[in-house]
Amino acid sequence: MDNRSNKFVFVPFCLMAQAYQAQGIVKYEWKSAIKPFMQLLLDNDINIIQMPCAESTFNHSLIREPKGISKYDTEEFNSHCESLANKVAEEVQELIQCDYQVLAILGIEQSPTCCVNYIYTNKGMENRKGLYMEKLYDKIKNLEVPIIGINRKYIKKSLAQLEALLTEK
Prior knowledge:
Layout lengths: L6 E5 L1 H4 L18 H9 L3 E4 L3 H6 L9 H4 L2 H23 L3 E8 L9 E4 L2 E4 L3 H10 L6 E4 L4 H14 L1
């Protein structure tokens, strides 16, 4: 008998490895991973798939200053995000075709690439997806896979949202 879990959650690279975030971003008590989210997924026997980091793979470096979405919104960076989104969308589709459950894709709020609901700009808060997430969403929107934005500042609220999703599945 095969005893593996058939449930998957896709996570942004920096949720498991915060060293991938821009310099000065990691200001919370967890230095390497956002532990409550990882622990919740592990405690529920969820397979965790780490999505590529669009910013670090585009810059070919972990060392970078924080940039707003307007600085990343270039033809080259959008093309890079499109390529990464294609690969992840193919993986999501393949899992579903093999009768696995893709429970969610997680993003990081306020990230210029991975935000799901909102980002702060020089105009204030904008309701929008990040450059990578909007491309990924377009590719999987017909698959009914929820995309949840993790807010590092309001961990408990984001954790409750993810926990509710896991308990209903």
